[in-house]
Each structure stands twice: as C-alpha cells, then as structure tokens.
C-alpha cells in the first residue's frame, strides 16, 4: 500500500465539490473563533457566515446544541461521567490510532462509501427575465432581513420584506447599496446570479477585506459552487479529524483512518477528505514549528541586543549554529536577499524593542508571548521551514 498517501492537496474539479483552499478558510475563520474567542475580525467572519445562512433560510440541524446537551446530561453524575470517559477512551484506542491497521480492502471500501468527486452543475442555463425579477426581489428580502439583524437602527428605517411592493423594491434598487458599501460583508455574484442551475447559497460570496487576504483563493473556492450541505459536512469533518487522529506521524495509516471518518458524512468526497487531511497535517506542522519561533528569535535577540550586531550578521551566526533546521530554508533565503519569509519583520514585531539589559530568561518569556500574540492576530502563516520527511 506504499505510495497511497497524498502528497499534495487536490486541485479544484468542475463538479461543485471543489477542494480549493478557501473551504478550509471557512473552517478556520468561520467556525473556530466562535468557540475559541479569537480576534474580532475572525469572530465577525463567523457571525457573518452564520447570519447569512440564517437569512438564506437553509434548514439544518443545530449540532452544537446536540453536543451541548450531551455534555449537560453527563453533569448529573460526575463519577459516572468519569467512568464513561475512561471507557470511551479505551474504545477509541481500539478504533483509532497508529497501531490500528487498515487493509487495502478497507481503503477501497471507504472510497466506495464516499460521494463521487464528480457532480454535474449546470453553469450555462440562464434565468428568464421574469425569473430574474423574482430572484432580485428575493435577494432584496435577504438584504433587508440581514440589515435588521446586523444593526437595530435599521429596524426604524426599514419595513419587513413582505411589506414592500414591487415598485418600492425597484425604486430602492433592491437595496444593492448595502452590498456595494460592504455593510453586509457578503454579496450575490452579479454574473452567477443569472445562472438557473445554482441556488442562492451557491451564488453567495463573502467580501474579501484586508487587501484580498482575509480568505485565501476565495474566487477559486466560489467557482466550485459548493452547496451548503457540502460546506457544512466539510467543516464538521475538519472538527472531527483532530479528535480521532492525535498522533504526530502522518502516514497511510492516518490517511486511511481519515477516510474512514469521512464516511460518516453524507456529502464528503474522496477529494474533500484528502484535502482536509492534508490541511490538518499542515496545521500540525505549523503548530509544532510555532513553538520553535521564540527560541529562534531569542538567539537572534541575544546577538542584536547584547552584542550589538545588526540583524543580518546575527542571523548568519544563528544559521551557522545549525540549531534550527526548520528555519534553514527561510534563513538561507533571507541571507540571499529574499525577504519572502519576513524574518526581520517578525523579529522587529516580537523582539527588537526588548532592551539588552533584560535578563535572558525574561526576554525569552516576552518573546514567546509576543510570538503567540502576533500569530493569533495575523493572516500570515508562521511556517517557513522545509517540509518534514
């Protein structure tokens, strides 16, 4: 079964179940901040996606409440809950883990259970003029309801959608101004709105703030025309992976178990499962290397702050120490004049202003806090080393 581990995320296909990067970004920026309380920007993205979905009136089960209910029922008997947790952990060890082997037949069985990668979407048929008027009126209703949800001031200036006549909606240009001034944080794609084969969710696009870096390759993602059900299963699947695949070595065993997990989600495809798994592996590497950043920057700081070296000379000395293999490629690039990885910028953000009079242990503590503070408020990836073998 050698060679079956995916090495690269699959590209987008033309089937509506695409696997582009922004699907993962919806997971990061839309779901996790609701739980972890990350930056305001991320929390806003989460709120926007949730509210937009409510406005579009897609009917889904609230799985978060179901999970909460499961937790609440366990609080009745702490001792019993503890025993259940222990038994559950034992059961999971038998089902998941690096020592649980999966055969090639199992692998193909998982593949058969998953939804096909190809799903035909009609991207050519257009709405008639009358149908388009109905769509515009419906979209106006979404904008009105969302504005009312977003800001109570709109309650005084807007009627309920059903109270507007066709003439009034036309006069208001269907409230498109709230899309164009980015009040809503989303918009209906002006070209795709005419496509008869798409539902409203598939025509929906989130505004890309911050010089188009908030959502990576957003346009590529949108072109996949994923349905809400596909996106929902993808996000839930991404939540499930770290609960069951917890060991550090990612190999065929881990990937096969990732496919097994995917079979519990009706709309998951092999391509989506593979992409989510590779993104999870990348995140693990990012977390691992994030822990090395404080020590790397601390060595540079000791040379700059205490021995009064300039940044490039200090970086060269640290490189010659041969202590930080994960940063080798980035340091070589920086020393050759390539600022792609922004090492000097990151040093200035986390360590430059720490005086040389500060005790080394205290300086390391300050740098560590700065690294985690900056990384949690940044869209930039803090991984710059070579890929693990």
TrEMBL record:
Q: Where is this region: Disordered?
A: 1-24
Q: Which domain of life is it from?
A: Eukaryota
Q: Return the PANTHER family for the record.
A: OS01G0961600 PROTEIN (PTHR34480:SF12), OS01G0967800 PROTEIN-RELATED (PTHR34480)
Q: What is this protein called?
A: Uncharacterized protein
């Amino acid at each position: 079964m050698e060679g079956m581990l995916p090495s690269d995320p699959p590209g987008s296909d033309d089937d509506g179940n695409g696997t582009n990067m922004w699907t993962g970004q919806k997971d990061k920026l839309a779901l996790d901040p609701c739980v972890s309380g990350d930056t305001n920007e991320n929390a806003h993205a989460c709120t926007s996606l949730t509210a937009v979905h409510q406005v579009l009136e897609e009917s889904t089960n609230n799985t978060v409440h179901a999970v909460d209910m499961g937790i609440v029922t366990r609080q009745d008997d702490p001792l019993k809950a503890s025993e259940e947790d222990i038994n559950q952990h034992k059961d999971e060890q038998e089902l998941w883990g690096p020592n649980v082997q999966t055969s090639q037949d199992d692998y193909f069985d998982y593949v058969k259970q998953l939804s096909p990668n190809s799903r035909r979407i009609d991207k050519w048929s257009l709405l008639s003029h009358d149908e388009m008027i109905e769509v515009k009126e419906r979209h106006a209703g979404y904008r009105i309801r969302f504005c009312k949800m977003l800001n109570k001031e709109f309650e005084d200036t807007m009627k309920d959608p059903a109270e507007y006549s066709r003439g009034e909606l036309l006069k208001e240009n269907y409230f498109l101004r709230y899309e164009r001034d980015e009040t809503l944080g989303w918009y209906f794609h002006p070209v795709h709105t005419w496509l008869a084969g798409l539902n409203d969710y598939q025509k929906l696009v989130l505004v890309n703030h911050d010089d188009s870096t908030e959502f990576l390759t957003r346009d590529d993602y949108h072109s996949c025309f994923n349905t809400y059900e596909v996106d929902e299963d993808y996000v839930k699947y991404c939540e499930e992976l770290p609960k069951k695949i917890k060991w550090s070595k990612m190999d065929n065993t881990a990937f096969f178990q990732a496919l097994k997990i995917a079979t519990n989600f009706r709309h998951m495809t092999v391509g989506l499962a593979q992409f989510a798994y590779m993104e999870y592996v990348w995140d693990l590497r990012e977390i691992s290397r994030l822990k090395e950043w404080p020590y790397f920057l601390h060595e540079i700081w000791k040379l700059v702050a205490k021995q009064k070296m300039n940044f490039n000379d200090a970086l060269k000395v640290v490189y010659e120490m041969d202590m930080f293999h994960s940063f080798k490629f980035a340091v070589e690039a920086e020393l050759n004049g390539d600022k792609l990885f922004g090492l000097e910028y990151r040093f200035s953000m986390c360590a430059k202003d720490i005086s040389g009079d500060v005790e080394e242990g205290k300086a390391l503590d300050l740098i560590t806090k700065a690294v985690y503070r900056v990384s949690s408020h940044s869209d930039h990836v803090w991984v710059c080393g070579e890929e693990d073998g």
